[in-house]
Amino acid sequence: MKKRLVSLMTVVALFSSNAATFASQPSDRHVEYVSLGDSIPAGMTPYGSYDLSYTDYLLKHFNNGGAVVDYNNFAVSGYTSDQLKNDLKDNNIIRQEVRDATHITVTIGANDLFQRLLSDPSSAYEGIIIASDNLQTILSTIDELNPDVEVYVMGYYNPFAYYPEQVQEFLVPLNDALNAEIEKRTEANGDTFVPTGNRIDPHFEKYMPNPEDNHLNIKGYKVIAKEFWKAIMQNKKTK
Questions:
Q1: Is the pLDDT of residue 239 over 50?
Q2: pLDDT grade for 68, boundaries at 50, 70 and 90
Q3: What's the CA gap between 186 and 104, in Å, rounded?
Q4: Distance between CA atoms of 148 and 71, rounded to whole angstroms?
Q5: pLDDT in tens, 98-135
Q6: What string of DSSP letters covers the chain?
Q7: Does domain 30-238 have CATH number 3.30.2310.20?
Q8: Which one, of 27, 25, 23, 58, lies nearest residue 40 by Cα?
Q9: 15 pLDDT band (50/70/90 cuts)?
Q10: What is the pTM of this model?
Q11: pLDDT tens, 174-215?
């Protein structure tokens, strides 16, 4: 009986020692996450302040998955595709972080459209073409810097949801055309397009509560983070 007890205690001790060792080991997957883009990943809220964005909630998904994450968010409110393109060409800090990244999210293009809508609505489609061309340069530059990185590009929800129907008849097709160009460039580059309108638009009052502003609240950013996480997990399964 005593021998059996000693043997059992030895097994328990060895198991406990190994378990402690395994628990103290870091994740075998180190994630270097870089966020690029405009006010949405920058965390602009519906009331002009800043809070957590979808990128911060995506970071939590990585952490909950057991990864050790290095996170850099270079998104800037109001950024156009020209500005992001120039950053990737000239900003050495961003270029180095892109080289080191395992995952990059990109949200860009809406301000190219909005600026032209405000200055000259008849030239709005020109903003879409510029955004499309610049996105091609952005994605190809990322690949030149880091051919192995996983890149996820966001499609925009409808920012005009509170406008009268007759106004939306003009504006929504422009947003759809922008998303179509973003998706085309993303897929042509071998990256992953992440649509968000299918989740945000049916419940826009819940996620975009200020009729005077087209930014999301925390609930909306959490929804977008889940869509990105689904895309990341899907890519993981197919590898």
A1: yes
A2: confident
A3: 13
A4: 18
A5: 999 999 999 999 999 999 999 999 999 999 999 999 99
A6: -HHHHHHHHHHHHHHHHHHHHHHHSPPS-EEEEEEEESHHHHTB-TTS-B---HHHHHHHHHHHTT-EEEEEE---TT--HHHHHHHHHH-HHHHHHHHH-SEEEEE-SHHHHHHHHHH-GGGHHHHHHHHHHHHHHHHHHHHHH-TT-EEEEEPPP-TTTTS-HHHHHHHHHHHHHHHHHHHHHHHHTT-EEE--HHHHGGGHHHHS--TT-----HHHHHHHHHHHHHHHHHHHHH-
A7: no
A8: 58
A9: very low
A10: 0.87
A11: 999 999 999 999 999 999 999 999 999 999 999 999 999 999
Q: Which amino acid, one-letter code, is at 126? A: E
Delimit the domains of the chain by residue range: 30-238
